[in-house]
């Protein structure tokens, strides 16, 4: 593992860090996996999160965090190989299968994941959820997209504004 | 793509609108999830999100890629018009001619619509956001005017003006440029050849001029009766380039400016012209970075061209 030893007695084993969700659940995870988050990476490099302290994540609840960590643990070995240039086709196919399965989730969970991926700056996860949302809006009309993404029903004013805008942008709908 | 399980049960409440705008660092690529999302759908679809709500009105305009593709005329009407003419043998010559003329008129109208669409899509880029990263133009239209000549009285038919979309014309630097298709439109009017900061693309009456020093990927694959494409600036960052030659001189100039490319894919060049290009200019080795050369051109007697290209190379590809 690429993570440096922090000297907290974990010699030999991979270094572990503790993350604390907004509802105070503690997750112990390998530093290499948590480091997929750009936000956490620096703290972890500085030796934070080890031992008893843990890193508090006030924006992420435990259900979302466990999902995020599931992703990180799966992707950490490949990321440690620098984007896995020497990964076998089988490994890549397995990751792809995992990714597809991973985003096949309830939409509210997906949204929590999007926010977490954004807050924690986990690049691969950001692309994965972006792709999922892109698939959700492909080939849909604005009203369908609104409904799909869970916008509230438009107020009459909003509806009027949308209609006016539709006129202006009619060329994109021809 | 329909995702039925998404629509079942209680509706999730939108949270995407909370996400920040596209913050873009040209070298780091997309920084925002909204940006990432809209980069993954067609430019037409991205543009449609402007209607969603006030929040979404301008999000798409900052997306750093544009893809203008004739296939985005996705209406069934387009495919209807362009499907092969039915072979109706018992039609008389007159009615056959009428049918063809009619079809041609509809094709021209559609072409015109596509150009308007392309114009609008390219003029809508948010000027305050960083320049486009990728611009892809794929035009696949036949030269309608030429086809029209034998059958249609041109005096009565207003042929669609063929123009390079404004973004290409006025030019904004981008890292990838793809121009594909059977014809790159000739400019309708002659805009003044004044690139922004000598960086970008612009069009004179005869040529499409590229001055894109940051370009890393270039693909020009235009056959038919294109304007000559020339490159004005060297492109030191170029990683891969693909060039299909159609006319003699301009294409060679373009090729010369691709000298830093690591990967070249050439077709349509004559062996003699390639030999001229392969000559070193003032002792500067051409194509010093070349690692891959794909060529569908004549390579000359005993592969002279190949040797010339490789002369200054230390490692063989």
UniProtKB/TrEMBL annotation, chain A:
Cite the SKP1 component dimerisation domain residue spans from the record: 124-163
Q: Which InterPro entries match?
A: SKP1 (IPR016897), SKP1-like (IPR001232), SKP1-like_dim_sf (IPR036296), SKP1/BTB/POZ_sf (IPR011333), Skp1_comp_dimer (IPR016072), Skp1_comp_POZ (IPR016073)
Q: What Pfam families does the record point to?
A: Skp1, Skp1_POZ
Residue span(s) of domain SKP1 component POZ: 16-75
Instruction: List the pathway annotation.
Output: Protein modification; protein ubiquitination
| Keywords (A to Z) from UniProt | Ubl conjugation pathway
The superkingdom of the source organism is Eukaryota
Biological-process GO terms, alphabetical: jasmonic acid mediated signaling pathway; protein ubiquitination; ubiquitin-dependent protein catabolic process
Q: Which family does it belong to?
A: Belongs to the SKP1 family.
State whether it acts alone or in a complex, and with which partners, per the record: Part of a SCF (SKP1-cullin-F-box) protein ligase complex.
What is this protein's function? Involved in ubiquitination and subsequent proteasomal degradation of target proteins. Together with CUL1, RBX1 and a F-box protein, it forms a SCF E3 ubiquitin ligase complex. The functional specificity of this complex depends on the type of F-box protein. In the SCF complex, it serves as an adapter that links the F-box protein to CUL1.
User: Per its record, how is this protein called by name?
Assistant: SKP1-like protein
The species this protein belongs to is Eleusine coracana subsp. coracana
Q: Which gene encodes it?
A: ga14711
TrEMBL record, chain B:
| Domain F-box, first and last residues per copy | 30-64
Output the InterPro entries linked to this UniProt entry.
Answer: F-box-like_dom_sf, F-box_dom, F-box_SCFL_complex_component
An example of a Pfam family matching this protein is F-box
UniProt superkingdom = Eukaryota
What residues form the membrane-spanning segments? none
Q: What is this protein called?
A: F-box domain-containing protein
Organism whose genome encodes this protein:
Eleusine coracana subsp. coracana
């Amino acid at each position: 593992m690429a993570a440096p030893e922090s000297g907290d007695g974990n010699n030999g084993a991979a270094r572990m860090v503790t993350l604390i969700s907004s509802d105070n659940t503690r997750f112990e995870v390998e530093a290499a996996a948590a480091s997929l988050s750009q936000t956490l990476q620096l703290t972890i490099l500085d030796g934070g999160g080890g031992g008893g302290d843990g890193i508090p994540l006030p924006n992420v609840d435990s259900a979302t965090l466990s999902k995020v960590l599931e992703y990180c643990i799966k992707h950490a070995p490949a990321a440690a190989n620098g984007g896995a240039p020497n990964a076998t086709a089988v490994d890549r196919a397995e990751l792809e299968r995992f990714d597809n399965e991973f985003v096949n989730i309830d939409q509210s969970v997906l949204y929590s994941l999007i926010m977490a991926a954004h807050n924690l700056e986990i690049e691969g996860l950001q692309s994965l959820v972006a792709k999922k949302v892109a698939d959700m809006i492909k080939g849909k009309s604005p009203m369908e997209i609104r409904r799909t993404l869970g916008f509230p029903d438009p107020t009459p004013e909003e509806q009027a504004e949308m209609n006016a805008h539709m006129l202006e942008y009619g060329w994109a709908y021809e | 793509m329909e995702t039925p399980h998404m629509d079942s049960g209680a509706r999730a409440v939108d949270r995407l609108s909370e996400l920040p705008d596209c913050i873009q660092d040209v070298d780091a690529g997309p920084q925002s999830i909204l940006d990432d999302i809209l980069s993954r759908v067609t430019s037409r679809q991205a543009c449609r999100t402007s209607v969603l709500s006030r929040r979404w009105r301008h999000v798409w305009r900052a997306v750093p890629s544009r893809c203008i593709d004739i296939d985005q005329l996705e209406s069934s009407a387009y495919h209807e018009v362009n499907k092969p003419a039915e072979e109706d043998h018992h039609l008389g010559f007159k009615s056959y001619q009428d049918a063809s003329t009619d079809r041609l008129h509809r094709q021209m109208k559609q072409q015109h619509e596509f150009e308007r669409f392309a114009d609008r899509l390219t003029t809508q880029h948010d000027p305050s956001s960083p320049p486009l990263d990728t611009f892809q133009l794929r035009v696949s239209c036949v030269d309608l005017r030429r086809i029209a000549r034998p059958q249609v009285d041109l005096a009565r038919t207003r042929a669609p003006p063929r123009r390079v979309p404004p973004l290409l014309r006025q030019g904004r630097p981008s890292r990838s440029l793809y121009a594909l298709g059977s014809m790159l439109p000739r400019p309708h009017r002659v805009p003044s050849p004044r690139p922004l900061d000598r960086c970008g693309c612009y069009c004179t009456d005869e040529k499409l001029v590229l001055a894109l020093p940051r370009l890393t990927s270039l693909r020009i694959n235009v056959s038919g009766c294109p304007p000559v494409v020339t490159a004005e600036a060297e492109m030191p960052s170029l990683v891969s380039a693909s060039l299909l030659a159609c006319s003699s001189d301009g294409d060679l100039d373009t090729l010369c400016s691709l000298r830093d490319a690591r990967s070249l894919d050439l077709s349509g060049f004559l062996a003699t012209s390639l030999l001229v290009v392969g000559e070193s200019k003032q002792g500067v080795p051409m194509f010093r970075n070349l690692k891959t050369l794909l060529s569908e051109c004549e390579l000359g007697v005993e592969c002279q061209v190949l040797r010339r290209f490789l002369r200054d190379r230390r490692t063989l590809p």
